[in-house]
Specification:
The structure holds two protein chains of two kinds. Chain A has helices at 50-57, 80-83, 101-111, 117-130, 146-158, 176-193, 204-210, 228-232, 237-244, 248-253; strands at residues 12-21, 24-34, 39-43, 65-70, 73-74, 86-89, 164-168, 196-201, 213-218, 221-226. Chain A is α/β, with parallel strands linked by helices. In chain A, 42% of the residues are buried. Chain B is mainly α. Chain B has helices at residues 2-17, 26-65, 72-110, 113-119, 124-161, 169-179, 182-208, 213-246. The chains are: A alpha/beta, B mainly alpha. Chains A and B meet through strand 6 and helix 3 of A and helix 3 and helix 4 of B.
């Protein structure tokens, strides 16, 4: 089945991405590709450079070397951001605290004058309903739980009808039930909006649950890329170590 | 320091380039105007009343002693409108409004709200800086007009009620009218407009370069107030010289 033919998504290609900060290599010549419409999950321990990689992909950071290509266009060229619809769900949700939930979700449409206030209200209501948050338009982010904030952040990302959506640790700081709910929402969205999705997480279960392909990062390097099966069967000792570490081992040690 | 000044000039230039889009930001400008007015009007009134009063109290008896009571209104009036009101109000606004702007933008930076704007392809300068700079450029001169009037009233009241001076309101304002010209008020308003831009740009810039969590926000707020005051006082001298030359 050809995924690209049914998708709104765009192809993402990372070519030799390199970044050094204070003499420390944060991203060490990273190369990988995410096909249009694919859900690619990057897992790796904390501090492996996953979030920094996302910030480069969305254009928030500039690399010392290498490039990020969206359908062949460099994200670092001035007009590329105007040509493609990109969205990112931040680890902290990054909702604007001075705005209500409705204003946060509709911000993209309001600021780009895409439609009338009445249409914006309707779209916001639809997106909130998709995320199970209908009726919360007038609440402020400070009145929401962590899980609700995450869902509002996803609703805000959906408003632009993104072709590429990046998720930074979407299930961090959530209880297991809420984490599964968020994962379920991401999976549903994959079928609904058919965008390319790139998710970084240190949650192996999330990766196994929703990924088409998985990449593993360690110390700024991409140490393995493959399907779930390939990754789980990998003989690479670094991959094996990361995938098999378990709290149960604490009991064994005792 | 020079890097900061360079960055602030770049920020000012980028904001000026966005001025044609100001109309679309009118709601935010009005919100900011309300915030600034709400935060400052009462303080402006109190401060100006006492500045005028002290000036009347300090100069009045000296001039009366030398038989120059006819000049009290003029001297006090011109000092208030050309110098004290623009400078004191700019310092007040730097402390009350500029610090709040830095804290708000700084916390947005630290908590990735500005990154979120950029990912939505929303220009943070258009969204955050433009309305604030426009609002402060309108609000500060307006507050200075209010401050000048209240300051004159404070000085006139002290001159009237103080036994050593005993100058009537009529006498005070007659003297003021003889000395203070319309261009003196414009002179003060021009200064306040320049100071408003300084406070706005310094405060927004410090907010945008904030790093390092709550402590970083605190550091940025302090820097913003101190830098604004230093720039206001040094620019005041330069502006006074330029305006005297043009006069």
């Amino acid at each position: 089945m050809n995924v690209a033919s049914q998708t709104n998504g765009i192809e993402l290609k990372i070519e030799g991405l390199y970044r050094k900060i204070n003499n420390q290599v944060i991203l060490d010549h990273i190369n990988f590709e995410v096909h249009a419409g694919e859900t690619f999950v990057i897992i790796g321990p904390s501090g492996s450079g996953k979030t920094m990689l996302l910030k480069h992909i969305i254009g928030l950071e500039k690399p010392d070397g290498g490039d990020v290509l969206l359908n062949g266009d460099s994200i670092f060229k001035p007009d590329t951001r105007d040509r493609y619809r990109l969205a990112m769900v931040f680890q902290s949700s990054a909702l604007l605290n001075s705005l209500t939930v409705g204003q946060n979700v509709g911000l993209y449409l309001t600021e780009h004058n895409i439609c009338s206030p009445a249409e914006i209200k309707k779209i916001v209501s639809e997106k909130l309903e998709i995320m199970g948050l209908k009726g919360l338009e007038d609440k402020y982010p400070s009145e929401l739980s962590g899980g609700m904030k995450k869902r509002v952040a996803i609703a805000r990302a959906l408003v632009s009808d993104p072709q590429l959506i990046l998720y930074d640790e979407p299930t961090s700081e959530l209880d297991p039930i809420m984490a599964v709910n968020i994962a379920r929402e991401i999976q549903k969205l994959k079928h609904r909006i058919k965008a390319t999705s790139l998710i970084v997480t240190h949650d192996r279960d999330l990766a196994y649950g929703i990924a088409d392909r998985i990449g593993i990062m360690k110390n700024g390097r991409m140490i393995a890329i493959g399907s779930k099966k390939e990754i789980m069967e990998s003989n690479n000792p670094e991959v094996v170590e990361f995938l098999n570490i378990d709290f149960q081992q604490l009991k064994i040690a005792q | 320091m020079f890097q900061n000044i360079g960055e602030m000039l770049v920020l000012l230039w980028r904001t000026i380039k966005l001025l044609p889009e100001s109309w679309s930001k009118r709601d935010k400008v009005v919100d900011q105007l309300y915030e600034i007015g709400n935060a400052s009007l009462l303080m402006t009134g109190i401060l100006s009343l006492f500045i005028g009063g002290v000036l009347g109290l300090q100069t009045g008896p000296v001039l009366v002693e030398r038989g120059l009571s006819n000049f009290i209104g003029g001297i006090v009036g011109i000092a208030i409108c050309k110098e004290l009101s623009p400078v004191m109000m700019a310092i007040l606004i730097a402390g009350r409004v500029g610090s709040a702007m830095t804290a708000e933008i700084g916390s947005m930076k630290v908590y990735q709200e500005i990154d979120a704007l950029i990912t939505m392809n929303i220009n943070p300068i258009r969204y955050l800086v433009l309305p604030r700079l426009l609002a402060i450029s309108i609000a500060l001169p307006a507050l200075v007009i209010f401050s000048i009037l209240v300051g004159w009233l404070g000085a006139a009241s002290v001159c009237f009620f103080n036994n050593q001076i005993g100058l009537s309101f009529d006498g005070f304002f007659h003297s003021l009218k003889n000395v203070v010209e319309f261009k003196d008020i414009i002179n003060g308003l021009f200064k306040s407009f320049v100071f408003a831009i300084v406070v706005g740009v310094v405060s927004c810039h410090q907010g945008l370069v904030t790093i390092g969590g709550p402590r970083g926000i605190g550091r940025s707020v302090t820097k913003s107030v101190v830098n604004s005051i230093v720039l206001i006082l040094s620019l005041d001298y330069a502006l006074t010289r330029i305006l005297m030359f043009l006069d």
